[in-house]
Amino acid sequence: MSINKGKRAWIGMGIFSLLILSLVVSCGKKPQVQRGGVAEAAIATYVAPGDLDEYYLFYSGGHSGNVYVGGIPSMRHISTIPVFTPYPATGYGFDKESKQMLGEFTWGDAHHPSISETKGDYDGRWLFISDNANNRMARIDLRDFKTKQIFGPIPNVSGNHCSSFVTPNTEYVLAGSRFSIPLPRGTYAPLEQYATTYKGVVAGIAIDQKSGEMSLGWEILMPPFNYDLGDAGKGASEGWAFWTCYNSERATGKLEVTSTQKDRDYIAAVNWREAEKAIKEGKFKMIGGVKVIDPKDRPGVVYLLPCSKSPHGVDVSPDGKYIIGSGKLQSVTTAFNMEKIQTAIQNKDFTGDEDGIPVLNYDNIKDAEVNVGLGPLHTQFDDQGFAYTSLFVESAVAKWKLGSWEVVDKIPITYNIGHLAAAEGDTAHPTGKYLVALNKLSHGRHLSVGPSQPESTQLINIAGDKMKLLYDAFTEPEPHYSQIIKADKLKPIEVYPKEENKNPNAIWDVKDSKVERNASNVTVKMVAVRSSFEPNKLEVNQGDKVTIHVTNIEQTTDELHGVGINEYNINVVIDPGETKTIEFVASKPGVFAFYCTNFCSALHQEMQGYLLVKPK
Ligand code: RUQ
Ligand code: CUA
């Protein structure tokens, strides 16, 4: 769900929560690996010492602002990629470049990771991740697993939750407003004017195919609904993008009541090639300094598909024929048929409009309402034509067949599953085999660690007819979504090759290390190499602006060095072959040690120096 802490979400969900509570309390069952299946499950998840996992699991860390990397089937946590939050363990947010990237914010709410695609399949180049809190989007380069760009705050977008799903050739990553506001951002209007003055926005962030650089593609002005999740069309629906929205009541206040009055909300279907055309035709207005298409002025860009009320996930089947959307208070999920959607658009089979956006006739665009069970949220796919829907209220996953629409299996989950991820499950060619359930509550499945409990994930084998629970794992808060990619699709580097380091301040020989003064500016070029810094004595005057360019000249795997400066709140980590810049004002007089923070050799402790700050 879109709420930060599972436990709080639970309390906040009113009637919905009572229903859940009664279910959990009354059944009290703890799904276990089936008796007799323990040895089988152990073998299926055991990755022997020295062996490697078959898949990477990338999961978002919610309001921790990080992305976590795990392995499947072991479910071991392998690494943390800081994105929206400083992370001293890798020096992120302490050097000049990453500080600039983080800007004024020290946290983000990382929701949906999205691996770049070529022809609808993960290509392993980049991973995009949305920030629900500060309206941003980040790009991680999967060559070195580092955050390379934070784009935003995206103009006009407010609460970038329904993001960052990529189009099949990574032309765009989707963005949008969960919380409608008066536009442009910064405009004041009383809440009483919500239904008329507040606006939502959905957007495509354009991706440069070579560099991955993000820039604004197009924005579309939308009614003041809450845009919740999205997915890009592919195959039969290529060129389209879909977003669910709740609160078509345009209500404010206690939304759990006020926004659930009508039977239906919507899935917004955007024809993004038409959006591109509209921009080219000049059919936009400038809002917040960017080009925004108003559907009233430019028909053919966006349509609304009625969906059971308060939908959450929208998921496109691997062939792109079906758009799966669920009202999260219902027991069915709807499979919309893309062909029927196109026909309805051609025939103008509309039942009305919302601010000039045509509403399609529900009965004529769906193929089925699938009886999946209570509280359907998200759907994933395998390689055998099956879909897997997470059931929050029922705490289960339903497996059902695309086309025949029958539910063929169900597995209980502990507890209250949110997202789920299948191996390569968002692509044109899912690989089946594994499904990971991302649960909102861990509920007594781990050694007690006090009230602030870990989140839980469960690995499920989906290779056979029956889904089988394999493994419980616990994670940092708070995974929202994850993607699973074949390990051999990624070829990360282990050191930055010296030839690639184009930093003008890099030096590769201790002979070139120096300290230069220009009035009150002190610039240091420093080398870090086992097991010393050169120079290791920095004499400055109180009030000097100090800039240290430090190059780790190692070309050996895993030989990282750090520069931590006592009481100056600085810790920068430099990977082999990397140059980083530390900037600070020597405001405190006295003698301060600096030292290597990353264990690097037998004489790591000796890797130290002094910053001597002469008082004014
Ligand atoms: S949400 S439990 Cu932030 Cu993706 Cu669905
Ligand atoms: Cu360099 Cu420890």
Q: Can you give a write-up of this model?
A:
With 616 residues, this protein is mainly β. 11% of the residues lie in helices and 42% in strands. It contains nine helices and 41 strands. The strands form ten sheets. Strands 8-9-10-15-14 form a five-stranded mixed sheet, covered by helices on one side. A hairpin with a 5-residue loop joins strand 17 (311-316) and strand 18 (322-327). It binds (dicuprio-$l^{3}-sulfanyl)-sulfanyl-copper and dinuclear copper ion.
CATH topology of one domain: Methylamine Dehydrogenase, Chain H
Q: Are there runs of 5+ residues with pLDDT below 50, and where?
A: 1-28
Mean of all residue-level pLDDT scores? 94
Ligands, ions, cofactors: (dicuprio-$l^{3}-sulfanyl)-sulfanyl-copper, dinuclear copper ion
State the helicity in percent bands: 10-25%
